[in-house]
Specification:
single chain; alpha/beta; Undecaprenyl pyrophosphate synthetase; 2 domains; 6-stranded parallel sheet; 11 helices; 6 strands
Length: 280
């Protein structure tokens, strides 16, 4: 029996509440986590991981948390762990989808809760000594002009505080939608050509996949090798639609605030076991 199957069997047969069960299983979890880490470190790790951070509200309901900011603060706090895991594996870029353009249509109090959590986290990132020690560059992409002035100011402060770093690129997708990004890129490409004196028929001929790629929100980032979505939903919902053409996808039932190092390592190990053909 493998350690992983032993964990699953013990968790099922114990019949104990999670709070009582986990301390009993902690030694097995640590051993399993250590083995997972060694396996992953022996393989090729992704250059860029995208994460759809889903399940905040369902996780909050499990613990009877209803205050909007508190619901999303739990997920924001998980970012600290994630950054540590990525540094451990020397992953150079991660992109997190924290707020979509569709989210703007939610109830005002919920939108305010999400934005308040983003503001607080961006302010903390700007001053976090671990961010500066690891030389992590923080930046945001999306229709940022749709964000309230206070939220945007917190985003810009984090970007400015880390602008000169190149240890890892942490990209926050806020007020982001994949279709909107492609639309914005094509419009920017055509507008640029027209401003340089091209006629419309000439500009149309210059619309190529390579040209569109240069006008995306973060054209310097490599396409994501791996995209992870938490909470059991099996869809992209518009995340990095252009960039994910050849990405590998990993879906887990774990809610984002409960996402563990073991879950992250399993996703990377699964990626390493796949044979990537890139359409060939």
């Amino acid at each position: 029996m493998t350690i992983g199957s032993a964990l699953r069997s013990a968790a099922t047969l114990a019949g104990l509440p999670e709070g009582r069960r986990l301390p009993l299983l902690a030694p097995l979890y640590r051993l399993y986590e250590h083995r997972l880490l060694r396996q992953v470190q022996a393989g090729v790790t992704p250059r860029h991981i995208g994460l759809i951070l889903d399940g905040n509200r369902r996780h909050a309901r499990q613990y009877r948390v209803s205050e909007p900011k508190a619901i999303y603060t739990a997920g924001a706090d998980r970012l600290d762990d994630l950054l540590g895991w990525c540094v451990e594996l020397a992953i150079p870029a991660i992109t997190l989808w924290v707020f979509s353009t569709d989210n703007l249509a939610r109830k005002p109090e919920e939108v305010s809760g999400i934005l308040a959590a983003i503001e607080t986290k961006m302010a903390l990132l700007a001053e976090d000594p671990r961010i500066h020690r690891q030389r992590i560059r923080v930046r945001a992409v999306g229709r940022l002009e749709l964000l309230p002035a206070r939220t945007l100011a917190a985003v810009r402060a984090a970007e400015a505080a880390t602008a000169g770093y190149a240890g890892m690129c942490l990209t926050i997708a806020a007020a982001y939608g994949g279709r909107q990004e492609i639309t914005d890129a094509v419009q920017a490409l055509l507008r640029d050509q027209l401003e340089h004196g091209k006629r419309l028929e000439e500009a149309i001929d210059l619309v190529t996949t390579e040209a569109i790629g240069r006008y995306l929100y973060a054209p310097d980032l490599p396409d994501p090798d791996l995209i992870i979505r938490t909470s059991g939903e099996i869809r992209l919902s518009g995340f990095l639609l252009w960039q994910s053409a050849y990405s590998e996808f990993y879906f887990t039932d774990v809610f984002w605030p409960a996402f563990r190092r073991i879950d992250f390592l399993r996703a990377v190990r699964d990626f390493q076991r796949r044979r990537r053909r890139f359409g060939q």
